[in-house]
Design goal:
By secondary structure, this protein is α/β, with parallel strands linked by helices. The chain has helices at 8-24, 40-48, 63-74, 114-126, 148-160, 169-178, and strands spanning 29-34, 52-58, 83-84, 99-105, 127-137, 139-140, 167-168, 181-189, 193-200. 36% of the residues lie in helices and 26% in strands. The radius of gyration is 17 Å and the shape is globular.
Length: 207
């Protein structure tokens, strides 16, 4: 029997994220979501952006039921069945399907640092020409004061697992650069989060 899990945080941030996505996305395309979790985001976005096709994924097989339940509850026809995907895997998906959007929210700070490089490398393999990777979550930024809430959150994450923690944006940018991606846009979001848009680095002209 299918069941849906509920994340209060995902419920709070789904509309601000959608508003930001509307600013950067074309009218139609196909999207791959990394770390779909409960499935609340993909169901919300797919309902609001019906000309986009969505492929939800998560590393946890137990998440499949919740994702499917949220999609079924909305009666959505533009969401594919969820797949188990581990960003650390050498091959994410069968074949070399490319996506106009790869979306990943709230993963980098609750997974080992190595997943950042893996996310960037895998995204570079699977982004269509002109496609974008969008990451959402808290970041530490040089020259930008960190909120008390994020400082406390970072400490609690590291107490749970020394490999976790809020990442420095400059470190994430370095991993992106190694994969041939660069930061194209930064959107400040509620609750001291950022939505970052990444795309392929522009090759210097030979002319």
């Amino acid at each position: 029997m299918s069941y849906s899990n509920f994340s209060p945080a995902a419920d709070r941030n789904k509309q601000p994220i959608l508003d930001a996505l509307r600013e950067v996305l074309p009218e139609r395309g196909n999207a791959l979501e990394i770390a779909s979790g409960t499935g609340q985001h993909v169901a919300w976005f797919a309902a609001a952006l019906p000309q986009w096709t969505w492929q939800p994924t998560d590393t946890m097989p137990v998440a499949m039921d919740s994702i499917s339940a949220w999609v079924a509850e909305q009666g959505l026809r533009n969401v594919r069945p969820p797949l188990v995907l581990d960003v650390m895997a050498a091959e994410w998906l069968p074949g070399i399907e490319q996506f106009d959007l790869i979306y990943c929210a709230n993963m980098l700070h609750i997974s080992p640092w190595a997943t950042c490089a893996a996310l960037m490398q895998g995204s570079a393999r699977h982004l269509a020409p002109g496609g974008m990777l969008v990451t959402y979550g808290p970041y530490l930024e040089d020259g930008v004061p960190t909120s008390e809430g994020n400082l406390s959150f970072d400490q609690s994450l590291r107490a749970q697992d020394p490999g976790w923690g809020i990442r420095r944006r400059v470190d994430v940018e370095q991993q992106a650069a190694r994969a041939g991606l660069q930061l194209q846009a930064r959107h400040a979001m509620p609750a001291n989060n950022l939505l970052l848009v990444w795309g392929r680095s522009q090759q210097p002209s030979n002319h």
